[in-house]
Amino acid sequence: MRTKVDEYGNTIPDGSLKDVVVDLPAGFAGNPQAVPQCHPAVFNNLAAGSCPPSTQVGVAKTEIPAGNLGEPNAIYQSAIYNLVPSEGETAAFGFYVVFTPVKIVASVRTDGDYGLRTTVSNISQAATVFGQELTLWGVPADPVHDYQRGRNTVIESRPAGIAPRPFLTLPATCPGPMTNTMRARPWGGGDWETITEVTTNPDTGLEEGPQHCEKVPFDARLTMQPSDTRAGQPAPYTAKLNAAFDDHPSALGNAHIKDVRVTLPEGTAISPPNADGLQACSPEQLKLGSTDDATCPQASKIGEVQVDTPLLSGPLTGEVYLRSPTREQLFAIALVVRGHGLIIKLPGEIYPDHRTGQITTEFRNNPQLSFERMTLRFKGGPRAPLTNPQTCGVHTTTTTITSWAGHSQTSTDSFTIDKGPDGGPCRPLGFSPSFQAGSVDPTGGGSSTFSLTFGRSDADQDLRDITVQMPEGVTGKLALAEQCADALAAVGACGEESKVGSVTVGSGAGSNPFYLPGRVYMTGPYKGAPLGLAIVVPAVAGPFDLGTVVVRAAVHVDRTSAALRVVADPMPTILEGVPLRVRTVNVRMDRPGFMVNPTSCRGKTVSGVINSTAGASAAVSSRYAAANCARMPLKPKMVLRVGARGRTRVRITTPLTVTLTQTPGQSNLRIADVDLPRSLASRLEVVTERVACTPEQYAAERCPAHVGTATAVTPLLRDPMEGKIYLVRKPNQSLPDLTVRLKGTGVTRAIEIDLVGTINIERDLSLRTRFREVPDVPISKFTMRLTPGRNGAIGVATNLCSREGKRDRATLRFRGQNGRFVIRKQRLKISGCAARRAGRPAAKKKAAAKKKAAAKKQASKKK
Length: 863
Hints:
By secondary structure, this protein is mainly beta. A hairpin with a 2-residue loop joins strand 36 and strand 37 (578-579). The protein has 4 domains: 3-169 and 175-198, no CATH class; 220-417, Immunoglobulin-like (Sandwich); 434-630, Immunoglobulin-like; 633-830, Immunoglobulin-like (Sandwich). 6% of the residues lie in helices and 41% in strands. Residues 834-863 are annotated as: Disordered.
């Protein structure tokens, strides 16, 4: 200490020390278990004698004033004893300055590099101290120290009486000189004063640190074992990191572990059900770099940890916490262990492979502290953070551990999955997915949520995609929703105006999958289909946001029956390295009024094909039947308008317009027959030769001509459907079919429907057209216009304006989808006849007749 001369000419210390803190280099280790510990009650009671020699770990020499003025200062020597630490202390040591006890508390810098720190607090002012030298022995029980044992003056050799064990060990790092830092402050509120010392070579005086680190031994290995060996199931895993520790006094100490890199076997993966109720520990709660304990929420705990070290009288225990994800690091954990006055926090990073889900975990720059075993026990049960591989057999964990001395050691550890998912014998994964679909309210013709659910068991291969064939008549009222633009649908950014349903996806193995909600949006044409769906699921699971999953689906409309076929794209199987292992998918088309039930109660099926990621396919079906269809009436109205000016006489073509209307609430039509009266005839040269085309020409839209146009208005679409009418020849038919090619307009212009009517000439030579496969969809108004002219298909057989022509009636037959039947005779509405002159009174008629007769008589007389 610095000194000064007092007013009497005496040299005295310049101040009185209160606190002294010494920080030793990181890696410099002390083992308070190398010798027994002396109880503080014994140490503090000088009258009862001093602590046993076996507890001494060094000597303290204190420079104090001499007994007489003018004499040089005296040196007071005291033994330094290993004391039983108080609650909250890691280690404690004590010595005396004359009759004043001094206690040194040893701790670890848990807010920094985890090096050792010794602290002497509230130093007594009873003794005047000029300086002090403390010597701690590397091997306290070594006989070389026997003559230095005892509280004060050495009198005789005093053996420790115990086996020698190392007490102090130098760091095993050789990057350069070591630095010791001492901070001290006096009584009276003075500032801290810091003194830094760098180790030097005593021979050269040059700064120098430990040498020959390559000779330091190192051996560390990790085992990783599940306690539940069922394939594909969430399981509790136990990791044990074992490090060699040699405390033989003549041997070099073992190097400390610096980095640990653990790669689990492919198939051992993050389990999605773990996210249910899971929270994360924020940086503010974890308090890395602080001596304060962590305050992580209980819901962020995913395991427990225990550290067994020979340096302490008992283990350190704590928790494994999930750390809050960041943009740079999505998955991270922290080990928090405490005990014996220590709080140690070790951050680790997890890197799942984005293609396979294989997990690699790294703990870097670990503290240079000795331990024999670190045991991590991850939670088990349905919410376990890890899940087993799906296949039976041997699976191997690979670990690479590096030391602070520069070693690198790679080891492996294997475990065997020897049970099936149900605990039975191992079997190859099959594929028998479940499937169920139907309307929540199956009332015929009504509007109802349509629900479809498919899934698999843990014994099945993972789901890939699905194709669904909807029953005829189960359709959607597209007019109620806007079509989401393709660019928005691709990224899941559709608006509420396009929403037509909801989806729930169950993910993960075990008895409690994790369920994610999502939405279903209507889109425009997709992959050659006239309509599409965008199934959007925000993959937010607990504290993790894995992005937005978008699965597109093409919605095909059958040209004949208008039945829907939905072809979904493959579902993702992994997100951000987390295998989804999708268990169930439930799609509910639940926009109010959107889905419409059929008006036919005949038994149907919702069928489909589900494919697995391994290439297997399964045909699935679910029975479907509407109810109470018979209650619906069938009251269609049809108007047939024929003729035009100059188009009513015999052997001339004439226009024919057929208009069908239906009011809401009726059964949809299944069959419509129209028998034209004999006053109208088919022009065979046109029907069979001039304009009729082949099916191939029709499919390619290359028919030579059309014979009319048609318009259909349905409440399902916002805009009408329009198209042309063609005559299409069919094999083994003498007369072609009358085919109406309807195409959507506006946003539904990609929808196409073919209405096919068979043409027959009956025995009475009347012309019958029968539409036998009318789609089970509601039609408000359907208009068909057959045009006259060179390609006109309808000719006049009896003058339409004649009395006989006006009396002719068409025969109409309608059968509803619900089985109801209607037949009626319908008079034609004829246009183009000359207007009838207004009628005259009978008297005027007689007067005109008389006048005419008189004129005739007068003319004959003149002759």
